[in-house]
């Protein structure tokens, strides 16, 4: 099952990524000034995933990627995939697991491992 991971950017804004079962990022969301805004965006997505669409694109170098869109607003942009099949598998994972995915918050920067 995929997971939403909240983290902090270098400019102190928050972002989230949807990460696959294998730990690879599938897409990254927009910047948010406050952490709870990030959480609200994720919860809104999870509650109404069927209202979002996936627009597919190709880079100049032939890599495939997609944007997650609701209405005219871009919710997230995927990583670059080497093939369209791999991109479709990423989209399928979002559709299948997105609504029941857990949220992990790594924005505090605290180490989860003890100091040695």
UniProtKB/TrEMBL annotation:
Record Gene3D superfamilies: 2.30.29.80
Protein name: DUF1508 domain-containing protein
